[in-house]
Amino acid sequence: MILSITGFMGCGKSSVGRKLSQLLCCPFMDLDEMIEAEAGKSIPEIFAEIGERGFRQMELTVLSSVLSVKTEEGTTTILEIISLGGGTIMTKECAQIVRERTLCVYLKASVQTLSEHLEGETQGRPMLKGNVRERITELMAQRADTYENTAHIIIDIDGKSVDEVAENIRDEVERRHRGSA
Ligand code: S3P
Predict the structure, then answer these.
(1) By the 8 A CB rule, do 8 and 140 touch?
(2) pLDDT digits over 127-175, tens only?
(3) Nearest C-alpha to atom 15 of ligand 1 is from which residue?
(4) Residue 178 within any structural domain of the chain
(5) How remote is the CA of residue 51 from the centroid of ligand 1, in Å?
(6) Which is nearest to 7 in space by CA: 109, 98, 97?
């Protein structure tokens, strides 16, 4: 089984994914890092060269190939974790494969929490140009429904540490596993 982590930029997908992979003793993958490795370029460089549309196409290509390889390998019992980019599932095909082929966890955060996390962290995030709080509010309004409708599990992260969020996910995964055993 592949567990995917989605949520807005700054919600802690990668940190939580890494922590969870320690708790569950399983491999961790980061989609943004895989795209950068594949392109041999940073995300801002990719955006500068081929724009958001080109980047979204790369996201879809890399994600589909990872998920089909993993599905063929038959990772049905061993857990692997992948943290997605904040906008990955805004591409319909990505949302569909994430929903069908992974157990998707949405790290849900308020605009206040995201603003605090993203303060001084906007470099390297081409989608956050301009006033950060306004941009978060604007993008969240476009994205919130897709996060909620694509995820199988929603975890509220406001006021929680990375460790607490990872433990919440572990508990939920174990609870589901017990339920299905
Ligand atoms: C994006 C989020 C980024 C990265 C790219 C676009 C988005 O990932 O994929 O800059 O559209 O929300 P993080 O959520 O890991 O910052």
Answers:
(1) yes
(2) 999 899 999 999 999 999 999 999 999 999 999 999 999 999 999 999 9
(3) 85
(4) no
(5) 13
(6) 109
Instruction: Please name the amino acid found at residue 105.
Output: V
Residue 175 lies in a domain: no
Run of H or E including 92: helix 92-101
Backbone torsions φ then ψ of 153, nearest 5 degrees: -130, 135
User: Count of domains in the chain?
Assistant: 1
pLDDT in tens, 42-59: 999 999 999 999 999 999
Residues with CB under 6 A from ligand 1: 9, 13, 32, 43, 85-87, 125-127
CATH number of the domain bearing residue 93: 3.40.50.300
Q: In what order do the strands lie in the sheet with 153-156?
A: 28-30, 80-83, 2-6, 103-108, 153-156
Domain that holds residue 128: 2-170
**Largest pairwise CA distance in the chain:** 49
> For residue 181, is it within any domain?
no
Q: Which residue has the tokens 């994430």?
A: 98
Rounded Cα distance between 179 and 169, Å, is 15
C-alpha of residue 69 to centroid of ligand 1, in Å? 23
Give the other-Cβ count within 10 Å of 150's Cβ. Answer: 21
